[in-house]
Structure formats: C-alpha cells, structure tokens
Design goal:
Blueprint lengths: L13 H25 L10 H20 L5 H26 L6
C-alpha cells in the first residue's frame, strides 16, 4: 500500500497534487512580490500577474481532479483550492496597486 493512500484506499490524486503545488507557488511568489513592493521596489508589482497565472489553472485542476478522479479526499481538494484562491486574490490586489485601479470609492 502506498503511504499517501489512507486506510480506505482513497488517495489525493495527481491532478489535485499539481493544483496544490501551483497554489503554493502562487502564494510564495505573491508574498515575495508583496514584500519587495513594501521594501520600496515599485517594479516588483509588474510581476503581479504571476500569482494569477498560477492560481487560475490551479483552481481549474483542483476542481477537475475532484470531479474526474476516483475518490479524491475532500480535504486534499480543499487544501489545493485554498492557496490557489489566495494566490488569485493576492495577485488581483497587487495588480490593482500596480495599475492604480480604484477599488474603494
């Protein structure tokens, strides 16, 4: 038995694992961009599209993995969705700061 499968034979599935990896990469890159822009490097905000580019396919892969794969665990799907959504939201907020969008009137 594989160590990644539980007692009931359910596994997280490879699509959900890739989606979680994309989400974690989006969050880490977004945090680095945020900290660089807080340090005064204004040009770092021009990379704010990267968390969006990583977050959107992660959301799509985690939903497809939940629907198409054999018995994925719900916690793994939610664990993959959470960082993908955080990367998407963080990327949009940083793009708003970069492009001077008016969020709150």
């Amino acid at each position: 038995m594989n160590e990644l499968t539980s007692v009931g034979g359910k596994g997280s599935g490879s699509m959900v694992r890739v989606a979680g990896g994309l989400g974690l990469a989006a969050v880490i890159i977004g945090l680095a961009i945020f900290l660089a822009s807080c340090a005064g490097i204004e040009a770092a905000l021009q990379l704010s599209f990267l968390p969006i580019v990583l977050g959107v396919p992660g959301i799509i892969l985690s939903i497809l993995g939940a629907v198409m794969q054999d018995n994925p665990e719900d916690t793994h799907v939610l664990g993959a969705l959470f960082p993908c959504v955080l990367g998407l939201i963080g990327g949009l907020v940083m793009m708003a700061a970069w492009l001077h969008w008016t969020i709150f009137a």
